[in-house]
Amino acid sequence: MSITLEPEDDWKNKIADQILKDLLDIHKIQGNSIKKMKADQNGVFYVEQEISVEELLKKF
Prior knowledge:
With 60 residues, the protein is α+β, with helices and mostly antiparallel strands. The chain has two helices and two strands, in the order αββα.
């Protein structure tokens, strides 16, 4: 479930997306699954989905 943020708070999801990209680089080496995160309306990050690196790379 993704929560839509006000445009002035969308930067929080951009940070979460950058964290995801950084984790991809780390986990490519380790071979672990990663947690796709989003921010709620209070700016708290939560795990939206846990997926394998291979699954995520297929989406790009």
